[in-house]
C-alpha cells in the first residue's frame, strides 16, 4: 500500500493547552499502568499452578506464549485502527477485554480457562499499547504546545514498563499474605480496571473520525517511516529489551523458587518489580542523554547485567541473580525508551499508531520467542545451562543492535 492510501489522522479542535488535556493525559497514563500491571499478575503465581497441576517449566512458557500470541494477533488486527476510529474508543475496548480476562481467571483455575484468559489478556494488551502511547503523545502536545516530549516519553514508558513490574509486586504480596492466592489478585484488578475505564471519560479524543472511513486492512510491518535504518535499529532494540522482560514475566519466578531455593511468592514478585522498577527509573533519570548515549548505555547494561544474572544461577547466589536482573532491566528500559522515542519522532502523525504498532509487534515477538525457547531447552538441559546459552545469543543480538544503530542518522 502506498503512503497516499494511508488514512490521514485528523485531530480534534479542542482548545490547545486546555486543562482537560492535562487531566486526560494522566487518566490515560493510569489506564495504561493498570492494564499493563494486570497483564503480569500471573507471574509470581505460576509456581503455584505448577505445584497444583504438575506444570513443567515448558508448560509455563506455553501459557506465556498463548498470551504473547494474543498480543501479536491484536496488534496485527487492531493495533493501528485508532488512527481513524479514535484513541479513546479503542482504549475502552481494550480495557473491557482485560476485564473479561480477569473474570475468566476468577471463574476457575483449570488449565484450559487459564489459557483462554491469557489469550484474551493478550488481545487487550495488543489493542492498548500503541493506542495509549499515541494518545499520550497527542494529549501532551495539546496540553503543553511547544514543550519538549520528555514528559510524554517518561510517563508512557514508565506506565508501560512500570506497570509490568507493579503487577507481580501486588500479586506476589497478595498471594503470600492474603488467602485464596489464585483468586484475590484477580479480584483486586477487576475493581481497578473498572475504575480506570470510568476515568477515561475525562480524556478528550485527539482523533476526529474521517468523513470517508478507509477500507480496513490488517497492520503491516514496515520500516518505511522516514529513516529505514533508524526504524530497524529501534525494532531490534525493542526485541532485545523485551526478550529480557519476557524472561522475568514468565519463568524467572520458577528459577528463584527451584534453582535458587527461595519459594516465597512475595520475593518472586519483588524481584520482578525490582527489574522493571530499575528499567523505569533509568528511563526517568536519563532524559538528558542523547539518543546514541541511551542506546549505548542500554546495550552495555543489558549485556553486563544478564551475564551477572547467569553467574548468580551458576553459583546459586540470589544477590548476584537480583543484581544482574536489575542491571539488565536498566539496560532493557533504556533500549526500549530509545526505541519508542525514535519511532515517535520519525513517524508522520497519520501513521504514528501504525509505526508504534509495528514496533510493539516486533517487541512482543521478542517477549515470547526467547522465553518459549528457554522452556523447550529445559526439557533436555538444566535451567542454568539453558540460561547460559540464552546469554550467549543475547550478546550476539545486542552486538547486532549496536551495528544497526551506528548506520542510522537518527541515532547520532
From TrEMBL:
<dbReference type="InterPro" id="IPR050171">
    <property type="entry name" value="MFS_Transporters"/>
</dbReference>
<feature type="transmembrane region" description="Helical">
    <location>
        <begin position="322"/>
        <end position="344"/>
    </location>
</feature>
<feature type="transmembrane region" description="Helical">
    <location>
        <begin position="356"/>
        <end position="380"/>
    </location>
</feature>
<dbReference type="InterPro" id="IPR036259">
    <property type="entry name" value="MFS_trans_sf"/>
</dbReference>
<feature type="transmembrane region" description="Helical">
    <location>
        <begin position="157"/>
        <end position="178"/>
    </location>
</feature>
<feature type="transmembrane region" description="Helical">
    <location>
        <begin position="267"/>
        <end position="285"/>
    </location>
</feature>
<keyword id="KW-0472">Membrane</keyword>
<feature type="domain" description="Major facilitator superfamily (MFS) profile">
    <location>
        <begin position="23"/>
        <end position="409"/>
    </location>
</feature>
<feature type="transmembrane region" description="Helical">
    <location>
        <begin position="229"/>
        <end position="255"/>
    </location>
</feature>
<feature type="transmembrane region" description="Helical">
    <location>
        <begin position="58"/>
        <end position="78"/>
    </location>
</feature>
<keyword id="KW-1133">Transmembrane helix</keyword>
<keyword id="KW-0812">Transmembrane</keyword>
<keyword id="KW-1003">Cell membrane</keyword>
<feature type="transmembrane region" description="Helical">
    <location>
        <begin position="116"/>
        <end position="136"/>
    </location>
</feature>
<dbReference type="InterPro" id="IPR011701">
    <property type="entry name" value="MFS"/>
</dbReference>
<protein>
    <submittedName>
        <fullName>MFS transporter</fullName>
    </submittedName>
</protein>
<feature type="transmembrane region" description="Helical">
    <location>
        <begin position="90"/>
        <end position="110"/>
    </location>
</feature>
<dbReference type="Pfam" id="PF07690">
    <property type="entry name" value="MFS_1"/>
</dbReference>
<dbReference type="InterPro" id="IPR020846">
    <property type="entry name" value="MFS_dom"/>
</dbReference>
<feature type="transmembrane region" description="Helical">
    <location>
        <begin position="386"/>
        <end position="404"/>
    </location>
</feature>
<keyword id="KW-0813">Transport</keyword>
<feature type="transmembrane region" description="Helical">
    <location>
        <begin position="297"/>
        <end position="316"/>
    </location>
</feature>
<feature type="transmembrane region" description="Helical">
    <location>
        <begin position="184"/>
        <end position="208"/>
    </location>
</feature>
<feature type="transmembrane region" description="Helical">
    <location>
        <begin position="21"/>
        <end position="38"/>
    </location>
</feature>
